[in-house]
């Protein structure tokens, strides 16, 4: 008798997309607690007028006003987001502000067509993307050598800080498709960066990593 075929493991992109489609209407409220971390992460990019920046996993566009304020009308912002419901909100933001220098791409990060040599890249609470080497390689290819990169997100705190880790677990189960890599979420990103600095925030429950793209 032929053994029954084992079910295929769930596609992480399908799982992540379904999750974000469910969260699209409440996403901005969910991330309100982390807005100071968003500002701090964007500050680490040291953006200047005229710079170009890739917002990887831009979601509903919450980072766009801060990025636009930094690069000005002469700069360029490229946002990547695979969830259509979230990207629709980002597009509404662009229309309301009448920005002409913002390009939004509906795609996974590894499949996005990025024809640029950007000065910076932002990864704000994009754990699934940070654990996907093909996505990181695609973004890195769109950055000039020396481009600034900053990422933040959840991480496991010290083993003794179990109340914080309970918070991380609950938030992660609600927002990522896999808990893999939560001990060092930036580890794959580190391979393409020089001068990597990792700052623990919120008692170590959140990390902020930044560096520059290797030549």
Spell out the blueprint of helices and strands.
Blueprint: H1 12-23, H2 27-30, H3 35-44, E1 52-56, H4 64-71, E2 76-81, H5 84-97, E3 102-106, E4 118-124, H6 127-130, H7 133-141, E5 143-154, H8 162-175, H9 187-190, E6 193-201, E7 206-213
Parallel strand pairs: 1-2, 1-4, 2-3, 4-5
Antiparallel strand pairs: 5-7, 6-7
Description:
There is one protein chain. By secondary structure, the chain is of the alpha/beta class. It has one domain (12-213): Rossmann fold (3-Layer(aba) Sandwich). 37% of the residues lie in helices and 24% in strands. It has helices spanning 12-23, 27-30, 35-44, 64-71, 84-97, 127-130, 133-141, 162-175, 187-190, and strands at residues 52-56, 76-81, 102-106, 118-124, 143-154, 193-201, 206-213. α5 links the parallel β2 (76-81) and β3 (102-106). The termini are far apart.
Helix tally equals 9
Largest β sheet strand count, sense and barrel closure:
7 strands, mixed
Structural class: alpha/beta
Under CATH, the topology can be stated as: Rossmann fold
Strand order of the largest sheet: 3-2-1-4-5-7-6
Number of domains: 1
List unreliable stretches of 5+ residues. Answer: none
Q: What is the H/E order?
A: HHHEHEHEEHHEHHEE
Beta strands, count: 7
């Amino acid at each position: 008798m032929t053994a029954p075929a084992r079910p295929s493991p769930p596609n992480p992109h399908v799982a992540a997309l379904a999750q974000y489609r469910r969260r699209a209407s409440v996403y901005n409220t969910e991330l309100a607690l982390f807005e100071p971390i968003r500002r701090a992460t964007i500050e680490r990019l040291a953006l200047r007028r005229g710079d170009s920046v890739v917002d990887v996993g831009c979601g509903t566009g919450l980072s766009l006003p801060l990025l636009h304020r930094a690069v000005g009308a002469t700069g360029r912002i490229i946002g990547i987001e695979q969830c259509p419901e979230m990207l629709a909100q980002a597009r509404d933001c662009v229309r309301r502000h009448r920005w002409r220098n913002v390009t939004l791409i509906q795609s996974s990060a590894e499949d996005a067509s990025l024809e640029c040599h950007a000065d910076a890249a932002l990864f704000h609470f994009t754990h699934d993307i940070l654990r996907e080497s093909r996505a990181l390689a695609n973004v890195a290819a769109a950055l000039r050598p020396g481009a600034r990169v900053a990422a933040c997100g959840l991480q496991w705190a010290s083993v003794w800080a179990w109340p914080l880790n309970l918070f991380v677990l609950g938030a992660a189960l609600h927002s990522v498709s896999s808990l893999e890599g939560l001990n060092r979420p930036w580890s794959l990103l580190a391979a393409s960066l020089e001068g990597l600095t990792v700052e623990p925030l919120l008692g170590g429950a959140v990390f902020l990593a930044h560096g520059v793209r290797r030549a």
